[in-house]
Amino acid sequence: MTDQTEAGEILSAPLIIEYPFKRTTGPIIGAFLTGLREQVLVGSKAEDGRVIVPPAEFDPVSGNDLTELVEVGPEGVIATWAWVTAPHAKHPLDDPFAWVLVTLDGADTPMLGALKADGIDAVSTGARVKPVWAEEREGHIDDIAHWVLVDDADEGDRA
Amino acid sequence: MRDIAVISFAQTPARRSVPELNEVEMLMPAVHGALEQVDMTIDDIGFTCSGSTDYLAGTAFSFVSTLDSVGPWPPIQESHVEMDGAWALYEAWVKLQLGEIDTALVYAYAKSSPGDLPMVLTRQLDPITVGPLWADSVSLAALQARSLLDSGKATEADMAEVVARSRKDALGNPNAQLAWDRSAEDILAEEYHIAPLRKSDCAPITDGAAAIVLAAGDVARSKVKRPAWIRGIDHRVEPIHLGLRDLTISASTSIAAGKAGVADGKVDIAELHAPFSHQELILKEAIGLGDDTTINPSGGALAANAMMTAGLIRIGEVATRISNGEADRGVAHATSGPCLQQNLVTVLEGEN
């Protein structure tokens, strides 16, 4: 083995893993995904009255079933953010962008998204944002193409 | 409760990539090092438990093949967790509490180098509403760091101080992967990686392995002069969605620290599993550590962060310092999941 190592003869082979199964999303997550297709955002009402987005099937404290859905957004404010200078090929946007946790109007917990913005200086905690919908929607989280700052909405809509 | 102690700990030198060895070969020096230090073989072990993940190995039930490292013949009592080895140690501790066995071997390993680690870790997120966004582990940690900075509880300079101290302490750790002596000012002058994190705020990507031998009562005393007794151990988990958590605190760590009895005595040293600099600040507060506690004398996860292994190493680093008399009482912490989602706290103590 040592000889092979010194000779640089390390065997390798490509390996691609797939998980080719489907799952049913149920009445809560299913409603959220159906809403995305129709450009409507919904959350679920927890036992303590908080509105959770994306909706939770179970109360985060008690674990009991949650069944009441509430429409939220579509605008919201940035709860926290992170600026990506060199996006990964799998990231939602190709140009530098901000990850944002967005607290939608009427919601008490923020959800994750990718914000298209001119630069790091354009983004701040508390700034208002809105979703830009994908042209073709299929009931998937990617139906929100990305988010834009409300002030930049005109530019974002053309994206 | 039975008295259970860490009596031996061994780890492989942390490296960015170990291409010339397979997992079994990489693991063997840790497993056999830990056994040999206390003059034991697998035949002296009552229960073996390991921590690793198929998502890094790229194959199902990968832990079965790495059992070859212990030589499991004749058949042994064995279990595995798809978690950090710290949780495997917890399972072994529970098994020892049942009283049927007196010794246990715990090991953990990971080779992160063959894949794209931050992207592999996105597979632990909610598969429907978060996973498809491919929000990598560094990006999520950056969201947490921003929350902490916005809260006013910490500054980027505080984070840089953690980095400078950790990597400097790592110079004294022969197993460290990333060790250097640079000032906090120098670190602050770096460009952002994923703002507000700089590359120096992030743990390195590591291939490595570690093993611990546990023993009960008089068996522990017969093997080593000063066993590191586990006085308390507890683990708690928080919701998978970041939005359901206050990212500026670690509620699960606080509960685990309370249940483990951290506050019942003085804490000489603490090894905290904080893969990002700001997380050490959150954990220090969550566990309730004062400035009289030496934090991460090994350099911590910022010096070496083998997946599934770095949490177990924290326990080993504290146990070693208790056994050699450097400390009387210490706290080891392990984490798993994005932004400190799941946390385990162990209190270890030596006898005088």
Characterise this structure.
The complex is a heterodimer of chains A (159) and B (352). Chain A is an alpha+beta fold and 159 residues long. Chain A has one domain (26-158). In chain A, 14% of the residues lie in helices and 29% in strands. A five-stranded mixed barrel of chain A has the order 4-5-6-8-7. Chain A has a three-stranded antiparallel beta sheet with strand order 2-1-3, with helices on one face. The longest helix of chain A is centred in the first third of the chain and has 12 residues, at 26-37. The model of chain A has no long low-confidence stretch (mean pLDDT 90). The longest helix of chain B is centred in the first third of the chain and has 15 residues, at 23-37. Chain B has helices spanning 23-37, 54-57, 62-66, 85-97, 117-120, 137-151, 156-169, 184-188, 217-223, 251-260, 277-287, 310-323, and strands at 4-11, 47-51, 78-81, 103-111, 192-195, 197-198, 207-216, 228-237, 269-271, 294-295, 329-336, 342-349. Chain B has twelve helices and twelve strands. In chain B, the strands form two sheets. A ten-stranded mixed beta sheet of chain B has the order 3-2-4-7-1-8-12-11-9-10, sandwiched between helices. In chain B, strands 5-6 form a two-stranded antiparallel sheet. Chain B has two domains: 4-116 and 205-228, Peroxisomal Thiolase, Chain A, domain 1; 118-199 and 231-349, Thiolase/Chalcone synthase (Peroxisomal Thiolase, Chain A, domain 1). Chain B has 352 residues and is an alpha/beta fold. Chain A binds chain B through residues 1, 4-5, 10, 12, 15, 17, 23, 25, 29, 32-33, 52-54, 56, 60, 79-85, 88, 90-92, 99, 101, 109-114, 120, 125, 140-142, and chain B through 19-20, 58, 118-119, 126-130, 132-136, 139-140, 142-147, 150, 192-197, 239, 241-244, 247. Strand 4 of chain A pairs antiparallel with strand 5 (192-195) of chain B, so a sheet runs across the interface.
